């Protein structure tokens, strides 16, 4: 495909000999090569090539050769013609012919060959070769042939030309814009230094931007601090680059320092791109004072804000509930023929609704003759959240009459009614929705399912779930949770499990409370093993298992007489990072009692109390009875103090049990201490305990220090058995 150079591609400095018709045509030919860098187009036929050779033999002149080169489409033939002419006696290439062949090579991406031709042109000292090099550099830069431009630049410096700084700046700017490697930028900057040319602020801006792109922010800031040493003062572009890059890197405090520098030196950028870039940055950080100051500077510079700048400013004002000021800016936008977009109207509506100025929000939309549905939907939702349904109904009817409703508008109304158990009214809106040819989407189904679940109509909710599933639709997470909980309440556990398994295949995570209810329902129905198999599925979809879920499983196993399997579940619980709660401890303690593990049951009680958790009376009674029966009350010495002093959960029967057992085990002082506490509470000791009151003696007291028990036992030891059996996220029960 043939493309031609636009006038933007041609340098204003191209000499007169380029402006004649053949040279425009040859540039166009170079573009044809550019479109096919590999020069894969068919070569000129041999007969055509010979015809051109014969023509040149009779009329060989640089200008004639340039015309022939222009008419030759492929690069290989052009090179052959150029080299053939070079071998002819009394023929010398001109800067014109070199220009043509170098341009063709450059547009074809032949970087390595460019340097040789440039050096030959310089060596031949062709008239105007200096200007040709500069023009080639300009054209390559304008056409994003930057590697070729760098090659030409090296030739320019080798022949000690002294181009103006703008030539270098043009190449630097292109390198930075196209995110080329920093070494290329550094090469150009070094060439500037070698040429003895002083950089200006545009040069240094490109260098600073390149340093930031190379992730050398500190070096960029160092260049900024040394600007004055190079005889330069920062301009708006300097501040735009540095502030934007610092904010993007989270170095906001440093960005504010740079901004203060801008204010201090009274730099007032007079172009809109600066403000369009900087103001939204500080608006996003909610730096209202800074934004207002920048806005004032922009006004002083007589720069008209664009739509994005207005939008960011209005959003920031609304965040700070300065809605009146934001509305004034909207009026200013309209006056300046800058059309407010949906985001602007949304910001105003959000601000007014936050201030509970719902009527004013509606009036604003009417005054501005807003025809977009988005701000109306936002207002509709805010009115319903405020609980004023009649106002929302009137607004919806008005929207419907003006034909500015969409499926979201209908869903907002239906969802509110379903959430508030007004299913009949919701179905009326559903009927209107269908009559209006508005299709039901997943949000509609989700709202209706919630509505049915809140009324306990699980069958209808489940039917909608299957209907949507057949259409490959998905509910929202709240609706899945509501449906599963409703099914569990109706003891339709198999159906609830089916819903959970389906949502899990879509990697949808169920709320942990809802998952806990599902597990409880399964275990209570005797499906403990199936509940265990759901744990890896929950892990896969990101559902967090709550302690209640694990408690249900452990209670189910315990009820099935499989207390030894609790170790495995407990291990999984710890591996998943699920914290043990009071119920967990109680189940495990009762399991340890059933398995005859005295030390572990005593240790678990101590661990439980140390975490501020209390056993229920059933568990505590069973544990005390178990320890008393086995004459092992001494194993909970430290726990007894916490039970009677800190938590005060021991009743008179337990006091009697503990006192008698301690006496039997030979701990009279401890028994006396408990007796004193019992009497302070006004409780009467039992007959067997009464002997202490009449001064009965017991034989020499056994050592009252804490009994020696295996203090090295800890939760790790208890879990060892389970972890030994546990492998991965599955169970083998």
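Q: What amino acid sequence fits the structure above?
A:
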């Amino acid at each position: 495909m043939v493309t031609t150079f636009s006038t933007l591609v041609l340098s204003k400095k191209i000499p007169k000999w380029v402006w004649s018709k053949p040279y425009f045509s040859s540039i166009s030919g170079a573009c044809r090569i550019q479109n096919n860098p590999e020069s894969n187009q068919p070569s000129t036929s041999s007969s055509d090539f010979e015809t051109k050779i014969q023509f040149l033999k009779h009329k060989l002149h640089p200008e004639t050769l340039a015309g022939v080169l222009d008419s030759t489409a492929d690069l290989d033939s052009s090179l052959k013609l150029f080299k053939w002419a070079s071998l002819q006696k009394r023929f010398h290439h001109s800067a014109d012919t070199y220009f043509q062949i170098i341009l063709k090579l450059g547009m074809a991406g032949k970087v390595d060959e460019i340097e040789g031709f440039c050096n030959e042109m310089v060596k031949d000292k062709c008239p105007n070769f200096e200007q040709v090099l500069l023009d080639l550099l300009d054209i390559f830069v304008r056409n994003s042939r930057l590697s070729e431009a760098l090659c030409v630049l090296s030739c320019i410096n080798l022949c000690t030309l002294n181009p103006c700084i703008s030539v270098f700046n043009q190449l630097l700017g292109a390198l930075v814009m196209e995110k080329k490697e920093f070494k290329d930028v550094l090469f150009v900057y070094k060439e500037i230094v070698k040429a003895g040319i002083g950089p200006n602020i545009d040069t240094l801006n490109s260098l600073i931007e390149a340093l930031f792109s190379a992730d050398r922010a500190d070096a960029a800031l160092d260049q900024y601090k040394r600007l004055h040493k190079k005889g330069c003062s920062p301009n708006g572009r300097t501040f735009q680059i540095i502030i934007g890059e610092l904010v993007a890197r989270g170095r906001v405090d440093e960005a504010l320092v740079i901004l203060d520098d801008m204010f201090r030196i009274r730099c007032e950028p007079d172009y809109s791109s600066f403000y369009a870039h900087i103001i939204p940055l500080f608006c996003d950080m909610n730096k209202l004072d800074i934004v207002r100051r920048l806005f004032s500077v922009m006004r002083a510079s007589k720069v008209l804000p664009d739509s994005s700048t207005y939008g960011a400013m209005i959003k920031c004002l609304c965040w700070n509930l300065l809605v009146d000021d934001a509305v004034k800016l909207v009026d200013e936008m309209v006056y300046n023929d800058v059309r407010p977009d949906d985001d602007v109207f949304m910001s105003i509506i959000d601000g007014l609704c936050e201030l509970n100025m719902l009527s004013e929000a509606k009036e604003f939309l009417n005054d501005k003759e807003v025809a977009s549905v988005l701000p109306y939907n936002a207002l509709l939702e805010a009115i319903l959240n405020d609980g004023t349904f009649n106002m929302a109904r009137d607004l919806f009817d008005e929207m419907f009459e003006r034909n500015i409703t969409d499926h979201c508008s209908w869903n907002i109304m239906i969802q509110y009614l379903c959430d508030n158990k007004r299913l009949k009214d919701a179905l009326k809106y559903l009927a209107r929705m269908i009559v209006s040819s508005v299709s039901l989407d997943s949000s509609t189904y989700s709202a209706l399912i919630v509505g049915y679940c809140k009324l306990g109509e699980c069958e209808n909710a489940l039917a909608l779930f299957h209907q949507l599933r057949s259409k490959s639709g998905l509910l929202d997470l709240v609706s899945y949770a509501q449906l599963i909980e409703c099914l569990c309440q109706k003891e339709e556990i198999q159906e609830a499990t089916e819903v959970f398994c389906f949502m899990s295949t879509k990697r949808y995570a169920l709320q942990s409370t809802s998952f806990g209810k599902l597990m409880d329902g399964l275990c209570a129905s005797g499906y403990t093993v199936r509940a265990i198999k759901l744990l890896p599925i929950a892990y896969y979809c990101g559902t967090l298992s709550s302690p209640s879920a694990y408690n249900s499983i452990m209670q189910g196993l315990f009820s099935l007489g499989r207390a030894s399997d609790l170790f495995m579940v407990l291990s999984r619980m710890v591996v998943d990072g699920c914290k043990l709660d009071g119920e967990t401890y109680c189940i495990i303690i009762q399991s340890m009692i059933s398995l005859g593990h005295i030390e572990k049951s005593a240790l678990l009680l101590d661990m439980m109390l140390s975490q501020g958790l209390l056993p229920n009376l059933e568990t505590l009674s069973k544990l005390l009875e178990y320890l008393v029966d086995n004459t092992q009350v001494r194993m909970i010495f430290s726990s007894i103090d916490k039970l009677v002093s800190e938590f005060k959960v021991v009743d008179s029967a337990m006091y009697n049990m503990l006192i008698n057992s301690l006496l039997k085990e030979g701990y009279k002082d401890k028994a006396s201490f408990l007796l004193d506490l019992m009497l302070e509470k006004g409780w009467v000791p039992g007959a067997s305990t009464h002997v202490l009151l009449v001064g009965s003696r017991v034989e020499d007291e056994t050592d009252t220090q804490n009994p020696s028990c295996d203090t090295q036992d800890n939760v790790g030891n208890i879990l060892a058995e389970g972890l030994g059996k546990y492998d991965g996220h599955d169970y083998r029960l």
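Q: And what stands out in the fold?
A: Residues 21-34 form the longest helix (14 residues).
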